[in-house]
Structure formats: structure tokens, C-alpha cells
Amino acid sequence: QVQLVESGGGLVQAGGSLRLSCAASGRTFSAYPMAWFRQAPGKEREFVAAISWRIASTYYADSVKGRFPISRDNAKNTLYLQMNSLKPEDTAVYYCAAGSPYTGGLGDSQSEYNYWGQGTQVSVSS
After folding, report:
1. Percent of the chain at pLDDT above 70?
2. d(Cα 49, Cα 53) in Å, to the nearest integer?
3. Residue 79, SS3?
4. What's the rounded Cα separation, in Å, for the pair 59 and 69?
């Protein structure tokens, strides 16, 4: 089992940057495929980016491709989302999620992830 805690959200102007972090408990963080999702007000939660457990392959939603690189530091049990060139439409609560250990990962469906953090608010002003 793994527990996840996000941090790094805040208010930023359009065009700015933020880096989200997700600290994971447990000794086998490296075995978990990880992902970021987001939920804007009045909208359903949507996939943002995913990273596999073995060779850190990545997969992105079209809306963030080229702007939001996802990465992980297994030594620090931490997942990151570097958010660049932010737009007002990126405003949302951002959640990190962990899938089943030692599985392929890179899924974009919420049902593929078993563990979720509490979320961190990102607000982008125009």
C-alpha cells in the first residue's frame, strides 16, 4: 500500500511555471506506475500524464504535451509534474495517483489507479 501527498500548487499568471510534487510513503515506490490527473470546477477528473515504473516511460494528454514533463525520483519516493507555459484553462485541482505495483502503467483511465492523494490547487490568472 502507498500513501500520497501532493504539494507545490498555487496561484500563477498565465505563461508562468509551477512544479508539483507528490511524496509517497512505503519502501517500494519504484514499483508503482504513477500518474497525474486534474479536475477543474464543474468538470470531470481528467488524465494529465503518466510514468511507468520500470524504465520511466511517459505518456501525456494532448492538452499538456510539450508543456508538463512528468518525472520521478525513486530515491526520494517522489513524483513530479513540471508545469510550464501555464494557461488559464490549466486551473484545476491536481491529483497524483499510483497504480498496481509491477504492472505496465501509462494508463489514462482513473480505474487503473488504486491510490490517490488529496489534491493540490493550481490557479492560473489571465
Report:
1. 100
2. 14
3. strand
4. 9
